[in-house]
Design goal:
SH3 type barrels; about 30% helix; 19 strands; 5-stranded antiparallel beta sheet; 4 domains
Length: about 400
């Protein structure tokens, strides 16, 4: 390239317009540059209300619940569109939910207190891993259970593992798109319907415990013997020891000596201690005149007591529930609010029940040291402080009332 050609090229490059105009054809008119246009005031699209938790929901279609908020975690529990759920929160595209009837998990039994005759188990540590199968090999935990979760329904023992119904605090996860959430207001019909279904299914936990108890009792005939001993002790307790003649008193003392080393139930041991304590009280009355005075006063008391209860005709549950002193200090402390009812058809036995306002749960009542007159609370909405307790001879949970809030 000579010097003249190079100079011409330089002049052309300087004068030539930049960009797309270099490709313009001769005589072509370029369109004007687009001018900015101000946005029109369009109405905003309605916003979805922010979700509030907990909320009531049902699946929009059959789906699977997972142990973590990830599609890479396999489903642990298949549910259909009729399954009520309680939504506790949201994590990404997943919702964390509670399942009322629960699901079986395995816990290391060395970190638990287990009472097979009641089919109950308690975790004695914190953050105990719950697993879907009884193994730690290739099996990630589905969550953690602590001592704060209280009594768990025991489904069986498999080697070093206890199979229990997971507590409601153990959450599962479901894609948010797979569920339909009821109205946030609990006064709406849909929300109330789902909540009622949820509460009904929650009560199946106790039904499953009773089924497990029945199966355990069938496999352990020694339970029948223990139950017979407890029944015998309750019958002695229903009698007035100070009214026993010498022969009956000698029979009672001999029977207590025979049963004391044989019984294993805490309730039976407590009953023996109570009977011995009452017997010692009677034995302290040595003077014949004083004995006659005490017997006369107690005869009047027996007439009054007979008007409130006929111990020999009460059902076993009524007898147990009437012995509030025997349960003093037992169970997990709690404060509950609800309405006191009495079971239909049990007028003679008068089994009082607290229908908990928040959950609809029914707990059979007994009063520790006669702290509260349960009959005076019948039909009233009350707040009671006491302890939750489970007994093998009581069908369902019970509540030992210590005071009225």
């Amino acid at each position: 390239m000579n010097a003249a050609t190079f100079s011409t090229l330089i002049v052309f490059m300087v004068l030539a317009p930049c960009g797309a105009a270099q490709d313009r054809l001769p005589g072509e008119v370029l369109p004007a540059s687009p001018q900015p246009v101000e946005a029109l005031d369009e109405p905003e699209a309605p916003r979805e209300p922010e979700a509030t938790f907990p909320a009531w929901a049902q699946p929009a279609k059959p789906t699977a619940l997972r142990a973590a908020a990830s599609v890479h975690v396999p489903g642990l529990m298949d549910i259909d569109s009729h399954q009520p759920l309680q939504v506790m929160g949201q994590r990404g595209v997943f919702s964390s939910v509670r399942v009322p009837q629960g699901f079986p998990v395995y816990l290391a039994s060395e970190f638990m207190r287990i009472e097979e005759e009641k089919q109950l188990a308690w975790v004695t540590t914190r953050n105990l891993n719950a697993r879907f199968v009884p193994s730690t090999i290739g099996n990630l935990p589905v969550g953690k259970v602590s001592s704060d979760d209280g009594a768990l329904v025991l489904l069986g023992i498999e080697g070093a593992w206890a199979r229990v119904i997971a507590p409601e605090t153990l959450l599962l996860y479901v894609p948010t798109s797979d569920i339909v959430t009821a109205a946030s207001s609990l006064d709406s019909l849909d929300a109330e319907t789902v909540r009622a279904q949820y509460n009904r299914l929650a009560q199946t936990r106790e039904a499953r415990r009773q089924e497990a108890i029945a199966a355990w009792r069938a496999a352990h005939p020694e339970w029948k013997q223990e139950d017979a001993w407890l029944t015998e002790l309750m019958e002695w307790r229903a009698r007035d020891i100070d009214g026993l003649d010498a022969t009956a008193r000698a029979t009672l003392d001999a029977r207590l000596r025979e049963l004391e080393p044989r019984v294993t139930w805490n309730e039976s041991r407590q009953m023996i201690r109570t009977l011995r304590r009452e017997a010692m009280t009677v034995d302290d009355a040595t003077a014949a005149v004083e004995r006659q005075r005490i017997q006369a006063e107690q005869a009047v008391d027996r007439v009054k007591l007979a008007e409130r209860r006929v111990a020999e005709s009460l059902a076993r549950e009524a007898k147990l529930l009437d012995l509030g002193l025997a349960f003093d200090g037992k169970g997990k402390p709690d404060t509950l609010e609800g309405v006191v009812e009495v079971y239909e058809g049990a007028e003679a036995a008068r089994v009082f029940v607290l229908r908990v306002t928040q959950t609809g749960e029914a707990l059979k009542l007994t009063s520790a040291r006669r702290a509260v007159d349960l009959s005076s609370l019948l039909g009233r909405r009350v707040k009671l402080a006491g302890r939750r307790l489970f007994l093998p001879s009581i069908n369902g949970p019970m509540f030992v009332v210590e005071s009225q809030g």
